[in-house]
Amino acid sequence: MPVRQLPETTVNRIAAGEVVERPASVVKELVENALDAGSSRIEIVTDGGGRRLIRVTDDGSGMPPADLELAVERHATSKLDGDDLMQISTLGFRGEALPSIGSVARLAITTRHAGEPHAWTIAVDGGEKSSIKPAALSEGTRVEVTDLFYATPARLKFLKTDRTEAEAVRDVVRRLAMARPDVAFTLAGEERAPVTWAAALPGAAGRLARLSDVLGAEFRANAVEVQAERDGVTVEGFAALPTHSRANSLGQYLFVNGRPVRDKLLLGVVRGAYADYLPRDRHPVVALFVTLPPREVDVNVHPAKTEVRFRDAGLIRSLLMHALKEGLAREGGRAATDGGTATIAAFRPNALPRRGNFDWRRAAGQPSPPPRVPASTWSVAGGFAEATQAAFDVGHAAATARVEVAEPAPDALDRPLGAARAQVHDTYIVAQTRDGLVIVDQHAAHERLVYERLKAALDRSGVARQILLIPEVVELDGADVDRLVARADELSRYGLAIEPFGPGAVAVRETPSLLGEIDAAALLRDLAEHMAEWDEALPLERRLLHVAATMACYGSVRAGRRLKPEEMNALLREMEVTPNSGQCNHGRPTYVELKLTDIERLFGRR
Question: 179 in a domain, yes or no?
Fold first, then answer.
């Protein structure tokens, strides 16, 4: 087949395939143009998920008629001063976005420049351009795209339902709204009620306000500010507490020079920064903004500019990791606020009331309430207010009940975690603060404390170890033995000395003294199971953290152990001064806090 020159219409439609994948792609291009035009207000209206109508209206600088005529020509742009493709300070420079859209849809652009007496309009219908005509518009630019892909019907078959396409449009607008909190956005369409994000004040407070508008008030309540700067590169934004996580990575929003991206390098850094806090099936929620000189990043490695390439990727990686770790460590003692909300929901009564001896539940076909929890499951360490305690006084305690009364230190109620009052089910510590109460999972809390001690000991001079008088021989599968022996040096750094002991067994000769008496067999089996899932490319630091976390689990106070009042208070005080004590090594909260106002609401007092 001989070589031939393609007609311009076909070339435009091929170019459109790179830029216009779905209605959301069109919205992205048009809103980015509006932002580059200096707009302070942008309105987006869609119909049919964007396939029937997309209208973007802004109050930007607009275009004079000569520029408007050139804007629908291929390879025309106002976003490059010269020919240097590495000096891009706008969201885009591709001139073929508008002609590509016009080649597969019906495109109409109406714009008014400040120096013009009236507006001008131009239309592109399936690649056919009209002449420029006068029009009515007070300011800015209005772009309407109708009948998307009517000129390429085959592309319509790949679109999803109107609701799905509308959700993709919403996601694009959400990301651009997060990137530019100084701009007001309105998104409307028949698929959902209109939503407006008002312009926010400059600075971190304004950015957090916009993020709260887009991601919800829960993100704002659980957000940690992160910030770092080095060699002209700035990282700033907000990261949610580890206990405020999701089951997928859709809550991770990354921006480079104001451009929303899905960069594998940055996503990997976020995952690594939270590795010390979250299990593998949980994902953090973050909104991070990287700012650097345009020449230090290539934004043209992807047609839609959703991926970027950094000149010094190592610098970006280390700076982002430092910012996240510093912020999380600074606020590591906090637990997610939604823990208290979930606790209130769990306590809230949801059954019909009982009157007299008549069981309303049974009459309504519902099961009768479970029996009361026996008093023997409580270990009291000094009651709440005396009047409140009197209300619970139903006579002498049962013979199996264990009651210990101890007056807390005078200032204990003013401490963040308060004064221990009781131990419930030998697992949960109930503490009273000046304005509420705190419920602590003793095993999860002590697990984090031991883990932080192990890390601190390793950083100082190594983990102290205790030599077993009689080595403990643990029988394992041959593959597990090989894995453990291959990692013996790494285990030794944490005070666990093992060596092969014939086929299918290892001998434990030393254990970390910090852990006290442990079940060495169970610990080794757990370590071997984790090692089977390790990738050989996993960094040494990450492997060591896995080892430390597993050891901490076996060396911490177990659920079901009764604690004395002084032990409970000592645990609370150590949590208050230990980094990251708000969550255990598996990402679960170590405590939940209930404010007095929440408890009063529960009982209808508010």
Answer: yes
What range does the domain containing 452 cover? 445-554
232 shares a domain with 149: no
Q: Are residues 185 and 273 in the same domain?
A: no
CB 13 within 8 A of CB 104: yes
**pTM score above 0.85:** no
CATH code assigned at 283: 3.30.230.10
Cβ atoms of 36 and 123 within 8 Å: the answer is: no
What is the rounded distance in angstroms from the CA atom of residue 566 to the CA atom of residue 175?
50
Say how many C-beta atoms besides its own lie within 10 A of residue 88's C-beta: 20
Helix (H) / strand (E) element for 591: namely strand 591-595
User: How many CB atoms are located within 10 Å of the residue 566 CB?
Assistant: 13
pLDDT value of residue 372 = 47
Domain count for the chain: 3
**pLDDT at residue 600 above 80?**
yes
Show the DSSP H helices in 434-564 as ranges. 442-460, 478-486, 488-493, 520-532, 540-554
Q: Judging by beta carbons within 10 Å of its beta carbon (0-12, 13-18, 19+), is residue 284 exposed, middle or buried?
A: buried
Specify whether 192 is located in the same domain as 252. Answer: no
Using one digit for the tens of pLDDT, what is the confidence trace for 488-523? 888 888 788 899 888 889 999 988 887 777 788 888
Determine the Cα–Cα distance for residues 382 and 362; give it in Å rounded to an integer: 38
164 and 62 together in one domain: yes
Residues 42 and 122 in one domain: yes
Does one domain contain both 62 and 185?
yes
Measured in degrees and rounded to the nearest 5, phi and psi for residue 35 equal -65, -40
